[in-house]
Write a structure and sequence with these properties.
Length: 443
């Protein structure tokens, strides 16, 4: 069953470590069936309960999955093999359109904001016991949520969107619980869920966001949480419309116990109206990162939600990092106050490149997608071949496998590095690499 590999150890922690190390080194392959508990117990001369505890630990860590009488298997995408590793390194001379990074030319300079934060620190340094959320940040953050129709709730600050989402999931779910996620969707989130011992349930998306029937199906299958990207969805560029928001709220209304997490990472770079879903769920959170508008290295996101959820996030945060640096918080406040970024101008800059590429591809018979944000999703019949041929043409794109669960193949093209003169050559290269492929949704 395990070939030449023999599980070792006498204690549960040692047995779990033996399996996890074998998975990490490739000696146990994804999908490989593990021996029954009693077989391992007999082999090691330990109590079956010890092996059961080891398997439970491995399942909680996202290393294995258990399917009742069908036994336990190494996960097809274990947490030790992140999707971020599914990437293409651009060779010398190639243009890298795979990163998902914002255009540095559209990011504001940070010198003045950091100097202002340092000056404030000189007057009154943040010390132990101070509020985790600076008073200068909390008011404007809450006002921005109010302006977008986000329900009232307290504010917390985390080290980016993924940190916030992890803390909210951990506040309510336990290992083994299922989470409904967009497919294709954010690769880091698809890594995080099994790393927390949770199970991802794919929900198809189109240009208007998650399909209501897909969400309803995932909830019927037992999903206890739903994660939705409101705007600039990664990788497809989808944005939740008012009509789609109404339909999704109707689905959630009959299951108010489902945890709702909304990721609005496109705030500051998208000029489309936000259509939040929150309102009917007992527990919810909406997260906004500063990464795309002000720079990934700021590592700051603000979130709001119901009181129980935000209190749990803050409480657990106090037992870890404590708080996000007030220097960073004050720098962000300065950027807000000085209007360092004009969302309409930034949205227009990305929109011109994105729309031009989508239009050029559709003229060539390729049904590309990119309603908002800085990425274009291109369905392809052969993902591996398309990526390889594009590299030969001098263009590096992100393989769709980083973002997919059950949806068909595709590639993600980040438009941030593109100039107007690049659009036609990129479109021609994609046509040569993929051939015509038209799709209105991604399932």
């Amino acid at each position: 069953m395990l070939g030449d590999y023999r599980i070792a150890g006498r204690r549960a922690a040692e047995i779990a470590a033996s399996v996890e190390q074998a998975v990490g080194t490739g000696r146990l392959s994804p999908g490989q069936l593990l021996p029954p508990l009693r077989d391992v117990a007999d082999q090691l001369g330990v109590n079956p309960n010890t092996v059961a505890a080891a398997y439970r630990t491995l399942r909680d860590r996202g290393v294995i999955e258990t399917a009742g009488r069908r036994g336990s298997r190494v996960r097809s995408r274990p947490a030790s093999a992140p999707r971020e590793a599914i990437r293409v390194d651009a060779p010398p001379g190639a243009r890298d359109l795979s990163t998902g990074n914002p255009d540095p030319a559209l990011l504001p300079p940070l010198g003045e904001a950091l100097a202002a934060a340092a000056a404030r620190y000189a007057r009154r340094p943040a010390l132990y016991g101070d509020s985790a959320v600076g008073p200068e940040l909390e008011g404007p953050a809450r006002a921005a949520f109010d302006a977008d129709g986000v329900p009232d709730g307290p504010v917390a600050v985390t080290s980016g969107s993924l940190d916030a989402i992890e803390r909210v999931l951990s506040a309510h779910l336990r290992p083994g619980d299922a989470v409904a996620v967009e497919d294709p969707g954010w690769g880091s989130l698809l890594d995080l869920i099994p790393a927390l011992g949770l199970r991802a349930v794919p929900v198809p998306v189109d240009d208007e966001g998650p399909l209501p029937e897909g969400v309803e199906r995932a909830l019927r299958q037992g999903a206890r949480a739903l994660v939705v990207t409101d705007r600039a969805q990664n990788p497809t560029g989808a944005a939740v419309t008012a009509g789609r928001a109404d339909a999704l709220r109707a689905v959630l209304a009959v299951r108010p116990e489902v945890l709702l997490i909304e990721d609005d990472h496109g705030h500051g770079i998208v000029d489309l109206r936000l259509n939040p879903l929150a309102g009917g769920s007992a527990h919810w959170a909406l997260v906004r990162s500063t990464a795309k508008a002000y720079g990934p290295d700021l590592r700051l996101a603000v979130l709001t939600g119901d009181t129980v959820t935000i209190d749990r996030v803050r409480g657990r945060q106090r037992l870890g990092p404590g708080w996000v640096s007030h220097l960073l918080q004050d720098a962000v406040v300065h950027l807000w106050r000085t209007h360092a970024v004009d969302p309409r101008a930034v949205a227009a800059a990305y929109g011109e490149r994105r729309d031009a590429l989508v239009r050029a591809l559709r003229e060539r018979g390729i049904g590309a997608h990119g309603r908002t944000g800085m990425n274009v999703w291109v369905p392809v019949p052969d993902e591996t071949g398309a990526v390889a041929r594009l590299l030969q043409s001098g263009w590096a794109v992100a393989p769709g496998a980083r973002f997919r669960m059950a949806s068909p193949p595709g590639v993600r093209v980040t438009v941030s590095p593109l100039a107007p003169a690049d659009i036609e050559p990129v479109a021609d290269a994609l046509v040569s690499a993929t051939g015509p492929a038209v799709s209105g949704r991604y399932d």
